[in-house]
Amino acid sequence: MAQGQMAPGIVPGRLSSDELTSNFTDLHPPLAPHEAAVAADRCYFCYDAPCVTACPTDIDIPLFIRQIQAGQPQAAGRTILEQNILGGMCARVCPTETLCEEACVREAAEGKPVEIGRLQRYSTDTVMEAGDHPFERAAPTGKTVAVIGAGPAGLACAHRLAMLGHDVVIHECKPKPGGLNEYGIAAYKSTNDFAQAEVDWLLKIGGIAIETGSVLGDTISLDGLVENYDAVFLSIGLAGVNALRAQGTEKDGVRAAVDFISDVRQAEDLAHLPVGRNVVVIGGGMTAVDAAVKSKLLGAEHVTIAYRRGRDAMGASRYEQDLAASHGVRILTNVQPVAVYGNGSAVDIELEYTTTRDGRLEGTGEMIRLPADQVLKAIGQTLEGAPEGLALDGNKIAVTGAGRTSLDGVWAGGDCAAGGEDLTVTAVAEGRDAAMDIHATLVS
């Protein structure tokens, strides 16, 4: 078992199966056709629409909403998917409240934006439910590209390359493709195994093979890939987890939040998934919120998010913070972990209050101690397994232009590459743009 699941206070079955099923239903139910029509009517169809500028994948939002208004949701879905082939997942998990919807003119005028995310889901779901893939492959080019990692960036890159006529082999280390969409997205945001359904649908373009259990640095090497393929795209994500600078973090009950989220995502029966009675999540981003809310939905009695700075500095949007609070999660700010106590297993955690002086975070010496039989670390991830010879920018792969690395014939995108935000929608944009640059290089 993973670390933390054997601690005495961490047990399965805190809630009944019926309660768990109810708790993990769709966070935002899909719009019915008449609801979509009403929502679309609120759009002003702005010229130089600010929502488009705010979208990392540059979707023509006024156009697809007008197509919905005209009763053409499949055409709207194609407009979205031309720019963002994972538009279905992004509609579910993208922080629209800080991107397109925050920029919406209706938001500025009325405090209530057009429901762009839900309209996007309505359109893309309509296309996927129709069954046929909306895009066709170009004539074969005879070129083959290796994509390392079947996450959002890798899938977006592979699809665009396949559509342009190249053959693609995706090498994925895990048993299933999808990356964070499969293993890292909150279960209440992506229900009914949507991540795998989207991958299966994407592969209908043809020309893409996926080899699971293919591990860079173990079963395959970058040198070998460069030698055997016409181009290589690295989308290896961030596999490492930052260390928690506190005593006692080796105790049972202390684990990475991303591993906890993955366990929930992959669980066949949530009633068998252990969770603590008193859960403390360290961090302030969306991973912290997802882990905290999932803990509550699994039946944890007390869940606290502990973040070292103020709420305005949290990586999670205010909407995500409010979502956590609405589920009974306590958000404790300006605290940092000092020690986890317990005889072998976590029992409680000591936190120190912090303050910021001259731009620097400092401890105040004032302490607070909370019961904690489960401590989840959501303090950021790090790059692991970067091949030798690649230039790095900090702890990520250095890239220029549309994902070109320091090695000829090798591109990179997604969370592993420097420069972008760690968002699904950003990863899709980087994969798509790298594919276009790879294509231009291969056919020149």
Care to describe what's here?
With 444 residues, the chain is of the alpha/beta class. The chain contains 17 helices and 17 strands. The chain has a five-stranded parallel β-sheet with strand order 3-2-1-4-17, sandwiched between helices. Strands 6-13-7-8-9 form a five-stranded parallel β-sheet. The radius of gyration is 22 Å and the shape is globular.
Features:
Fumarate Reductase Iron-sulfur Protein, Chain B, domain 2, 17 strands, single chain, 17 helices, alpha/beta, 444 residues, five-stranded parallel beta sheet, FAD/NAD(P)-binding domain
Question: How would you summarize this macromolecular structure in one to three sentences?
Answer:
The protein is α/β, with parallel strands linked by helices and 444 residues long. It contains 17 helices and 17 strands.
Strand order of the largest sheet: 3-2-1-4-17
Q: Point out poorly predicted stretches.
A: 1-5
Distance between the termini: 52 Å
Mean pLDDT: 95
Classify the secondary structure makeup into a structural class.
Answer: alpha/beta
- C-alpha geometry: globular
The third-level CATH topology of the largest domain is FAD/NAD(P)-binding domain
Count the beta strands.
17
Helical percentage: 25-40%
Tally of individual domains: 3
- CATH architectural group of the largest domain: 3-Layer(bba) Sandwich
CATH superfamily of the largest domain: FAD/NAD(P)-binding domain
Secondary-structure map with pairings?
Blueprint: H1 17-23, H2 33-40, H3 50-54, H4 61-69, H5 73-83, H6 87-93, H7 100-103, H8 105-110, H9 116-130, E1 144-148, H10 152-163, E2 167-172, H11 180-183, H12 194-202, E3 208-212, H13 222-228, E4 231-234, E5 240-241, E6 254-256, H14 257-266, E7 278-282, H15 286-297, E8 302-306, H16 318-326, E9 330-332, E10 335-341, E11 348-357, E12 360-371, E13 374-377, E14 381-382, E15 392-393, E16 396-397, E17 410-412, H17 424-443
Parallel strand pairs: 1-2, 1-4, 2-3, 4-17, 6-13, 7-8, 7-13, 8-9
Antiparallel strand pairs: 5-14, 10-11, 11-12, 15-16
Helix pairs in contact: 2-4, 4-5, 4-9, 5-9, 6-9, 10-17, 14-15, 15-16
